[in-house]
Amino acid sequence: MSTTIIVPESRNIVKGKTVVLGNPRAGGMKKGIAIMDFILRLGAIAASLGAAASMGTSDQTLPFFTQFFQFEASYDSFSAFQFFVITMALVAGYLVLSLPFSIVSIIRPHATGPRLFLIILDTVFLTLATASAASAAAIVYLAHNGNQDSNWLAICNQFGDFCAQTSGAVVSSLVAVVIFVLLIVMSALALKKT
Amino acid sequence: MSTTIIVPESRNIVKGKTVVLGNPRAGGMKKGIAIMDFILRLGAIAASLGAAASMGTSDQTLPFFTQFFQFEASYDSFSAFQFFVITMALVAGYLVLSLPFSIVSIIRPHATGPRLFLIILDTVFLTLATASAASAAAIVYLAHNGNQDSNWLAICNQFGDFCAQTSGAVVSSLVAVVIFVLLIVMSALALKKT
């Protein structure tokens, strides 16, 4: 009878149907990770939606104009900013759709399927969010500082509000990126102890 | 005695020391993943080193000059490109240092420690590599196309070689990013089946 005592986890598979019981302590840690995962996802939704909205509404028209030309800057002007708006909207949409899987992880802390699904898609959308945040940051930096060697002048002197709004959007997207990294690390930790 | 038969995996824990046996099929799959992991890491080292070297040697001086000014473009001119060189060198260095852990995963396919360590650091360096690749891509795009609204002119007409070299570096870094995503997905799959 001693063999039944040294079996570490009481996982019973009956004809392909997995009945997961687990020991209470590991289950509690997994449940805690799953709840944290859900809360962080809500935060990431707010950050990415805020970034998309802030960038999407950035539009400034200068109060002076010449006969042929009116000075206007909006996110449409820069392809990196267009990419940013589209990507952040996609990321927010993915995060909303991922909430049910996060809830499944809370209800069944030992199920590896939803976690694996989430970690793979999180990695893909982390890449997407990081790429859009970094390319927008590069343009925002140029708009603030300009570049001497290529004769690109800083435009933030004229388009101050536009610059402030796009900078805010970039910061918000970086928050989303940090949350994504945390989500992946937490999912990996939860997967390991199964 | 029927309880010992329905235990799914033959994992025996004797006083805290884990003796992992595993079934041979899953071990073979894990070993395959670990070998693939090692090969992909070699590819990523080549891609990131190539990107850093290509960007770091990009330097073009135009054959004409005025009395006060000589036209020169190098990666030093753009802070995004400087960031790119530093980050790609860091990523290549990390990948070289991660090779021993990958080898440990090949020798001991069931050990979760090295895999967990690699998946967490891979995520961090994926973010770093993606950020540098995307910001450099945004600048390369601007150099090729310019921007009408902010009056930034395309410089690739003058600095053709410089543009070609930096574009090549960006493409090489994107290869490294794709390999990183594959590495993380493979590590997650290998962690799951433990």
From TrEMBL, chains A, B:
Any one GO cellular component localisation term in the record: plasma membrane
Mark the transmembrane ranges.
38-58, 78-104, 116-143, 169-191
Q: Which domain of life is it from?
A: Eukaryota
Q: Name one GO biological process term.
A: cell wall organization
**Which topology term describes how it sits in the membrane?**
Multi-pass membrane protein
Pfam families per the record?
Answer: CASP_dom
Location of this chain's protein in the cell? Cell membrane
Q: Which InterPro entries match?
A: CASP/CASPL, CASP_dom, CASPL
Q: Can you give the residue ranges of the Casparian strip membrane protein domain?
A: 31-178
Q: Which UniProt keywords apply?
A: Cell membrane, Cell wall biogenesis/degradation, Membrane, Transmembrane, Transmembrane helix
- Would the keyword Ribonucleoprotein turn up in this protein's UniProt record? no
Q: Which family does it belong to?
A: Belongs to the Casparian strip membrane proteins (CASP) family.
| Job of this protein | Regulates membrane-cell wall junctions and localized cell wall deposition. Required for establishment of the Casparian strip membrane domain (CSD) and the subsequent formation of Casparian strips, a cell wall modification of the root endodermis that determines an apoplastic barrier between the intraorganismal apoplasm and the extraorganismal apoplasm and prevents lateral diffusion.
| NCBIfam families per UniProt | A_tha_TIGR01569 (TIGR01569)
How is the quaternary structure described?
A: Homodimer and heterodimers.
Q: Please report the name of this protein according to its UniProt entry.
A: CASP-like protein
Q: Which organism is it from?
A: Lupinus luteus (European yellow lupine)
